[in-house]
Task: structure prediction
Amino acid sequence: MIDLHTHSTCSDGTESPFTVVKKALSAGITILGITDHDTTAGWNEAQSAMAPQIQLALGAEISCLTDDGISVHMLGLLFDGENEQMQRMLADSRDTRVPRMRKMVTLLQEAGYEITMEDVLAASPDQATLGRPHLADALVSKKIVKDRAEAFAQLLHNDSKFYVTHLSPTPVDAIKTIRAAGGVAVIAHPFASRRGQTLRAESFQDLVDAGLNGIEVHHRDQSPDEQHILSEIAVEMNLAITGSSDYHGAGKVNQLGENTTHLDEWEKLESQANARRVISK
Ligand code: AMP
Ligand code: ZN
Ligand code: FE
Ligand code: FE
Result:
């Protein structure tokens, strides 16, 4: 089973990279993507949990914004982790997430919610890319909401008045940076409409021109109809089709291996990286 999109405590997952790999082994995953938001901080620890039955596709999920303000997530897999341009792009995003969080906390305070930046930092593991799920966890510990899902539904969704963006590359820039670092780019859950406004089908050509390699078709936030349209786009544009869990430990209901990628689609994707970077033991 191939699951190319998971999160750990290096971003907004609730389990360490070591635990995610061990759980993937128990779940029968044979190729696992480690794709924390805007960081490669979990790569080394994930490798320390390796066993012969599992291979790792190390990567990151890059938060992007289109010029017209639509939030897009781009999975970068198999890039050179030492690439300076890539690490600069990831660091810029992480750095601006701190003032962005302060702004969100201030907006909530102004609306009467008793929450502080210290509460959010206390809810965020060391090394973690700071994100809305940590703010959600702080709101849960303050008993303002009951869980992350309720925090997002009521206060933190993309159209909320408390939502603030952080510095993000455009999807085209993210793809170019991933490819320049030797990796492959897969657009994550592009039609996940319940999260907010999504890309229009017409926008895919620009992404393909920038070097897009695949589309995450099978993902729980996309309906069967949305998945059908996306697989047609993928076939038409000769892009690899992936499926994945977007596992976040206890932070979401998503379970490892609940959506998977076919071996031939994986091979098509992997062959487009500029070096063989899959990690085996
Ligand atoms: P941020 O990167 O700080 O804008 O936060 C976005 C993250 O919030 C994404 O990784 C999502 O996985 C997570 N997220 C979005 N909606 C929900 C939800 N309803 N419950 C839990 N996590 C969510
Ligand atoms: Zn996440
Ligand atoms: Fe995502
Ligand atoms: Fe994700």
Observations:
- The domain at 2-94+167-270 is CATH 3.20.20.140 (TIM Barrel).
